[in-house]
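step 4 of 6: structure.
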Amino acid sequence: MRRAQSLTWNRLALAASAAILVAFIGIPVGALIARGFIEGDVLAAFRSPVATTALWLSLATSAIAVAVAVVLGTPAAYLLARHAFPGRSIVDTLIDLPVVLPPVVGGLALLVAFGRHGVIGGPLDAAGVDVAFTTGAVVLAQLFVAVPFYIRAARAGFEGVDRRLEAVSATLGASGWRTFRRVTVPLALPSLIGGAVMCWARALGEFGATIMFAGNVFGRTQTMPLAILEAIETDVDAALAIAIVLIVLAFAGLLVFKALARLGGRVL
Amino acid sequence: MRRAQSLTWNRLALAASAAILVAFIGIPVGALIARGFIEGDVLAAFRSPVATTALWLSLATSAIAVAVAVVLGTPAAYLLARHAFPGRSIVDTLIDLPVVLPPVVGGLALLVAFGRHGVIGGPLDAAGVDVAFTTGAVVLAQLFVAVPFYIRAARAGFEGVDRRLEAVSATLGASGWRTFRRVTVPLALPSLIGGAVMCWARALGEFGATIMFAGNVFGRTQTMPLAILEAIETDVDAALAIAIVLIVLAFAGLLVFKALARLGGRVL
Amino acid sequence: HDDEITVYAAVSLRDAFTEIAREFEETRSNTRVVLNFAGSQVLRAQIERGAPADVVATADDVQARQLEAAGLLAASPRTFVENALVLAVPADNPAGIAHLTDLAAPDVRVVMGIADVPVGRYARAALERYAAVNGRDGFVGAVLDNVVSFETNARLVAAKLELGVVDAGFVYRTDVLASDGALVEIALPPQAAIAAPYPIAVTKRGAGREAASAFVDFVHSPVGQRMLASHGFRPAG
Amino acid sequence: MIRADIRTTVGSFDLAVDLAVDREITVLYGHSGAGKTLTLEAIAGLLTPRQGRITLHDRVVFDSSAGVNVPPQRRDLGYLVQSYALFPHLTVAQNIAYGLGHVRRSERRERVESFARMFGVDDLLRRRPARISGGQAQRVALARALVREPRVLLLDEPFAAVDSSNRRTMRRKLRQLAQRLDLSVVMVTHDLTEAYNVGDRLAVIDRGRVLQAGPRDEVFRRPATARAAELLGVQNILPGRVVGSDGDRVRVATGLGMVAARAESRPATDHVRLAVRAEQIILERPDRPSTHRENRFQVTIIDEAAFGFSHTLVVRVDDAASGAPTLEIDVPAHPYQVLNVPARRDWRIHIPPEAVHVIGE
Amino acid sequence: MIRADIRTTVGSFDLAVDLAVDREITVLYGHSGAGKTLTLEAIAGLLTPRQGRITLHDRVVFDSSAGVNVPPQRRDLGYLVQSYALFPHLTVAQNIAYGLGHVRRSERRERVESFARMFGVDDLLRRRPARISGGQAQRVALARALVREPRVLLLDEPFAAVDSSNRRTMRRKLRQLAQRLDLSVVMVTHDLTEAYNVGDRLAVIDRGRVLQAGPRDEVFRRPATARAAELLGVQNILPGRVVGSDGDRVRVATGLGMVAARAESRPATDHVRLAVRAEQIILERPDRPSTHRENRFQVTIIDEAAFGFSHTLVVRVDDAASGAPTLEIDVPAHPYQVLNVPARRDWRIHIPPEAVHVIGE
Ligand SMILES: Nc1ncnc2c1ncn2[C@@H]1O[C@H](COP(=O)(O)OP(=O)(O)OP(=O)(O)O)[C@@H](O)[C@H]1O
Ligand SMILES: Nc1ncnc2c1ncn2[C@@H]1O[C@H](COP(=O)(O)OP(=O)(O)OP(=O)(O)O)[C@@H](O)[C@H]1O
Ligand SMILES: [Mg+2]
Ligand SMILES: [Mg+2]
């Protein structure tokens, strides 16, 4: 069981399709970066207050969005994976809907619900709480758009956990919570991490829902994507330079995230 | 092992967080739909040529995009899950990048690479092949933006497959391919399906990269999201009516997709 | 700052309004201007749903008029500046466009806005006016057949031109100016010249604020107009 | 003290078990698919019976009529599952320590180490389950179930994967622990020798029913039914009819002729079966006078096989009615040599009446 | 014909196995963690040894020096893994049929059914593995490995989870199949009885090394080393020194006194160990004259235990040197009763010289 043989042929086919995909994604991104470097001033972008302010805002809001997605999404995913209840597949599908909506429409939906005249926004407004057009709205927009990716991955992960191990845990006196924490979650970890990574990436790249629901105010709701698309208005190449900042940040962030997760998986 | 007990308390906590998420997603979508029905003419939208033409184009292109994502993404995911090679985590992270890029920037990247002067587009143009601003470009844009979701889910699924079962399959004379097809894929199926669902949903909702790379021409490259966002420019409520068409379609599609997948999983 | 006003402005005004706001704050030390830039349609949708805008400046008088009709403005919008529709080509002009009529030549890739956004509306009007005046039937259809993409805003048109993936497109003069030489303007025949008015107004929310109307006044002031002019806008005519 | 009287259906399998276990080791013995694992799962709370009642040390943990159903984690028991089910993401030490969440850190470590030593897995503590052998995994799983020192212990084939010397040690440790901690243990096995060597009490299960339960020797010597006798490895089961009884002797007419059996009383029915273990039949030279008056038969060896250090002979009784069964006889190596069995085919056997168990059905 | 001469290191475990298996059943016997499973994995191609050579029926499937390493699926063998590893998503029938991809549909079905019947799982064919018992799973896995009728068969503890009656049937079927199809079978077991009952040949493995291999009886009777003897269940191993030999008799001075042993020739070294099985020592009444001249010892019973239908006595030889080992003796139930062992503690034993095996180390 320790080391299986693999035919070179199969490996080649695998490598070929992986290579096509890598090229398909890598060449455009590479071309973009190349153009940004040649035509734009990437160094200046790295230092410009527009980019750095948006960068920090993006980092902070996406981190919060992922945290909320994990905290709320994990139980939801577990419920969907483990408990049959009437309407489960409706709920399951409802959770996927934000992915289908063009983000601007999603932002509109949030605005309709959380705006001053909305079902939720109305009462909140009466209580003096503003949601739309605040930094909080950025987080909500990101959450709305990105949480389905986490839930779907987590659900698949939970479904893959051997239920016998959970049963054994119970016979060893572990409460449901302890079993969940010590057996279910660690075993579903690759999927949970994968989902969180996708969720974070999606939140980081979110544009349409944010500009619609949170607005585009420098320092308050202007995240990296908004900064990039605002910059495009005046100069594509300046925008590309900011985009490179985002790409570098995301690349580093993803690498670190995955390395930490691997480490965590090992330590756990 | 057959039926474990669950504390009502835990269930409540689970149900509560699931309910919060469902409300968070459901209320805005519901509000949107309500508004669309009240203010827009949904029936007219369902019959309008703009909506129906865009609908078919969306269905066709997203279906092709998902098919390509599955065909190319599955081997890539398997490779990433099972074979260690230098630079694996770089490749892995590169594949996630399109998610981080605001779609318009992604479209820009595609345009840079596939445009007339691009690394890929240049030679193609010389050979008389146009990629940008065609229906094919719609598929490529959707693929670019959506394929990471499939690959990530598939990778997690493959990682979860017990390698002993694959080893046993080999001792039973099964070729690598047969093992993959009869053991690895069926056992990773929940993740593969989850990934394909997310991938399809993302492709269906794709706007920014499409309008940038494929343009927005009625009947050729105008998908549902483009039609909705074009309509928004003049009449929000007409746009909402078209959005409802998209939501209904996506909801039905997702339900059918999942039901078929469950069936397939059982038959397999 | 004890006084903060929020200005919602069309994205094409970004650089000009950023400068104007800085200057405005300079003159009124206790006032801060928060700027929010988005497409005119997004601005309208946001204000309709209670966005905290005190002043709104759109790139399209249709949106402004609809806001007024919805009773969301304190006073009628006033045009404070105009932009000019131009025909632009990439710096290297790959299709060798020299005149508006070249757009009808076979295999020219044209981009323009959709009919629902100003830049598209103006482009069509320009073409139609030119065709009508010169009696060229079928000219508009031939150009439209050459369009590879109808964009939802002028910047998407400009971006494609800047990348050199298309041959020609209708944008605003300010876009050409902002492109740092990546775009070249092809002069439109006088028959096709079209001006795009930019209206500005104080919203209902900003009605009570002195700073809001002061900002609008500042935009109209010679200082404001000079700054706008430096970004390619023309005084409202 | 465990009492389980439950009834349920799993798939097409019908389980109806009534089992009582005292402060001692009870072996639940039965063939593959008899329902042993399902019974343990029901006691552990992993399988909810349709109806019935389960008490552990006077605590009702399940009662269908009262609606009681205590979840597994609060039944306070140790359960070794048949497939070990070690946690793949935890090391051996972490696996063993898993159930010790409530114990202080220092003590936990000590206990883990002492139990690991007890089962000879102390040099594997830092490995993951994927990197140990099958028998090692089983021992780790046993240590994991025992380290909590629960008062009720359910063991599903705990020694199936380990060799005899390990098995001996483990058995001894288990017995010591059971005594020291006053445990009630139910141990499942399909291995008759195991059943005999470990248990104080024995319960025989077949097709979801407990056929017989009682002190080990009692069950072994006096199977209640022919099926129980068969399961308990009685090779010779003869149908017969009681024709008389005097004192502690019962006389039974069988296909082999008249057979005398020792029985406390005449069975309730006349149609009986006689159960005789192969190793209790005595082979004698036919040409020497016998010291036994009863149950002597002239036989012919028709088949033989050597198993380990004993020989199994299949013999036909010479005067038997046609269609009468053959008998199996076990002869240890020493008498086999001394008597020089291979030299001749015709022998005499003696069946001591004490060795004949009468089953009235 | 299987030949494996390999060497590798897994974790901290060092495997260096040299094994040759002919067209017959070879049992690989060893304790838990001895390296049995790793050996099978290497032969099956699931574990690539660091160096060595493996041939299956004259086909080199692995040769480190020649760079040959045939993947498992082209080694044409059947392998029953210790943990069964049934495919959870396939039914029992589909599991069994898994390796029959090349066989025609109608025939496939027939073969699946006949093998399922052979191992008594024919009424489970449509179930998923999660819904069958442990022993049933093992039988399904065995059917799955055998149905392909591979010429080389590797079985890792194939009977560990099944009861004795199933075990007997399975053993018989396996033997028949092996003969009919001319198979080379390696069967791993940790169970000595199993090893004795199934194999033509026996290989004893310990700590990654094959200690001894040969025809079963040969290995059982003449363990090559003290460790092999111990593993093979020889209870009495006495260190001694050869003091003389005449004819086929060797005389050895031990802690118990002089012991005569039968040996073809005087061992190469004088320092030897004597191996004597407990069941070959004969208990005699000390007050009756003995018929044996050699190897008679006066003993005292110091402990005793009953196992099944035999009794194990631990005795001390009365005249033994201090520190000399005690002896274990097995007495079957019948002589135990006849001699009335419980009545006295002091006895005489006789160790037949034929039962004393001399190990020269
Ligand atoms: N989930 C299930 N669904 C349907 N039938 C089942 C299920 N689990 C077990 N069975 C059947 O119930 C019977 C008893 O199963 P159980 O696991 O208790 O057997 P066992 O006595 O433990 O046997 P073994 O010694 O082989 O482990 C078997 O015939 C089995 O096929
Ligand atoms: N992947 C591994 N990494 C490190 N050590 C291992 C690994 N697999 C097995 N071992 C060790 O190698 C030794 C031999 O293992 P193997 O599985 O061959 O034992 P075995 O003879 O089959 O024992 P059992 O009867 O318990 O199954 C054991 O001590 C085990 O702990
Ligand atoms: Mg069982
Ligand atoms: Mg093993």
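step 5 of 6: annotate
 - The pocket of adenosine-5'-triphosphate (ligand 2) is lined by residues A 2; D 131-136, 161; E 10-11, 13, 30, 32-38, 82, 190 (CB under 6 Å).
 - The radius of gyration of chain C is 19 Å.
step 6 of 6: archive
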